[in-house]
């Protein structure tokens, strides 16, 4: 039960940070999302994001900041095995399933729902 509470608190805190960025600093959603991805990448590169995921579970692994962590993790793993070219291949290898799912589900949603414009 305690794990659920921490997941809620950590995930909610990440969302609150994003909302504050949009409301107080007047950043667009795209700027906010990019900033959170970069923050997750930096925290992942420093080795701080994985302990946060272990502590908060889905509260840290579902927000967009986790995507930045995944990019860095994939790049570092492949760079160790394949050198500098592994940086590029690792980024795509570890995140390809999530990116593909987003594209496929976005396309399917566009077939079902009418866009407003």
Automatic annotation (TrEMBL):
<dbReference type="Pfam" id="PF03862">
    <property type="entry name" value="SpoVAC_SpoVAEB"/>
</dbReference>
<dbReference type="InterPro" id="IPR014204">
    <property type="entry name" value="Spore_V_AE"/>
</dbReference>
<keyword id="KW-0472">Membrane</keyword>
<keyword id="KW-1133">Transmembrane helix</keyword>
<protein>
    <submittedName>
        <fullName>Stage V sporulation protein AE</fullName>
    </submittedName>
</protein>
<keyword id="KW-0812">Transmembrane</keyword>
<feature type="transmembrane region" description="Helical">
    <location>
        <begin position="29"/>
        <end position="49"/>
    </location>
</feature>
<dbReference type="InterPro" id="IPR005562">
    <property type="entry name" value="SpoVA"/>
</dbReference>
<feature type="transmembrane region" description="Helical">
    <location>
        <begin position="6"/>
        <end position="22"/>
    </location>
</feature>
<feature type="transmembrane region" description="Helical">
    <location>
        <begin position="84"/>
        <end position="113"/>
    </location>
</feature>
